[in-house]
């Protein structure tokens, strides 16, 4: 019973429970067979073999924690249990493990006296620092120390949520990760790793501030074809490659060139496009000069861009324009009562006849004659 009470996991509890049920079953069956006059030696040998088989079966079934005992050949009903103790245990104790099993009461606050007060539910962590045998000054010091630890953990959590940390990023990529979105950071990281790794380029400044970068890498996994040439403008660090032209993010050519020119940083974070910036830090970064007024809002007038088409419509255009109106009429008629529906249908038939005859001057107050 002590093994069942202090089992730390449900797996361990089920192991001891099966063993107890097996012992009860073996002892009870042996007693019955001895009373009936069977040979004791043969019974002991058979039951010992059965114990070995059941022990192997228990080892195989240890992974099936939480399954019903019926799945391992045990019935919880007292009627099918042979031993009286097994019937008593299943009826009165096994159905309420939450009240006495240690593995079911791990989250229960006891404060050393096995109580289960709902007001003590938040004191479980505090019990690790304070107990009933400490003096008052020791309790105060321990509680204050525990409070300082919680404040540090809270600040660490806030820092982790505000500042992105990635084990595969260096100092520069960590800075970029806190400026742009996650998707943009992944795109930049692929270019960054290639430029600082297996990339092979030659460059030359044929005109002031304009560099021509040519790929010399012939590997199959190279991001550029061999002898492909791109232009990089030093003023704003823009490249003519497809990656930077379409996604507006720093490319591998810019990273390689800035590293070769021994710039302070490989990634030009001050020139990142506004479309990729996080909203939390967008207001704290200046991307444009004070004289740049390209983003200022100007008033504008709304006017028709294209003149109205006065040409006659074809039959398909006429059908498309009239179909939504007819559909609206049908939808409205579907929700009417039978009396109103018959009146609306009679009026609709009358309108259809007028349209068929070419009479379109129908007054809104006109009522069709009764048929």
UniProtKB/TrEMBL annotation:
Signal sequence interval, chain numbering: none
Taxonomic path: Eukaryota, Sar, Stramenopiles, Oomycota, Peronosporomycetes
Coiled coil: none
Protein name, UniProt field: SWIM-type domain-containing protein
Gene Ontology MF terms in the entry: zinc ion binding
PANTHER family: SWIM-TYPE DOMAIN-CONTAINING PROTEIN
InterPro entries: Zinc_finger_SWIM (IPR052579), Znf_SWIM (IPR007527)
Domain SWIM-type: from-to ranges: 230-262
Native species: Phytophthora nicotianae P10297
Keyword terms, alphabetized: Metal-binding, Zinc, Zinc-finger
């Amino acid at each position: 019973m002590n093994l069942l009470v202090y089992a730390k996991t449900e797996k361990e509890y089920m192991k001891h429970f099966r063993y107890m049920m097996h012992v009860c079953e073996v002892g009870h069956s042996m007693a019955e067979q001895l009373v009936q006059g069977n040979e004791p030696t043969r019974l002991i040998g058979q039951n010992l073999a059965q114990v070995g088989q059941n022990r192997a079966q228990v080892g195989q079934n240890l992974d099936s924690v939480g399954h019903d005992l019926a799945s391992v050949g045990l019935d919880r009903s007292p009627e099918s249990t042979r031993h009286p103790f097994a019937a008593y245990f299943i009826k009165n104790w096994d159905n309420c493990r939450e009240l006495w099993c240690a593995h079911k009461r791990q989250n229960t606050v006891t404060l050393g006296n096995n109580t289960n007060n709902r007001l003590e539910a938040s004191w479980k962590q505090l019990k690790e620092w304070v107990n009933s045998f400490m003096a008052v000054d020791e309790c105060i010091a321990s509680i204050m120390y525990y409070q300082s630890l919680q404040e540090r953990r809270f600040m660490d959590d806030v820092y982790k949520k505000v500042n992105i940390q990635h084990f595969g990023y260096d100092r520069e990529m960590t800075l970029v990760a806190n400026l742009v979105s996650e998707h943009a950071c992944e795109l930049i990281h692929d270019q960054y790793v290639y430029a600082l790794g297996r990339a092979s380029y030659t460059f030359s400044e044929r005109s002031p501030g304009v560099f021509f970068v040519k790929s010399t890498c012939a590997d199959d996994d190279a991001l550029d074809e061999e002898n492909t040439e791109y232009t990089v403008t030093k003023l704003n660090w823009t490249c003519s490659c497809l990656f930077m032209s379409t996604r507006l993010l720093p490319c591998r050519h810019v990273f390689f060139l800035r590293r070769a020119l021994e710039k302070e940083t490989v990634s030009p974070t001050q020139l990142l496009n506004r479309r990729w910036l996080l909203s939390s830090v967008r207001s704290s970064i200046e991307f444009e000069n004070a004289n740049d007024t390209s983003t200022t809002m100007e008033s504008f007038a709304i006017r028709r861009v294209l003149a109205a088409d006065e040409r006659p419509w074809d039959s398909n255009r006429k059908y498309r324009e009239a179909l939504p109106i007819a559909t609206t009429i049908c939808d409205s008629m579907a929700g009417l009562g039978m009396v109103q529906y018959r009146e609306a249908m009679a009026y609709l038939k009358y309108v259809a006849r007028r349209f068929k005859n070419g009479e379109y001057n129908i007054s809104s107050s006109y009522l069709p004659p009764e048929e």
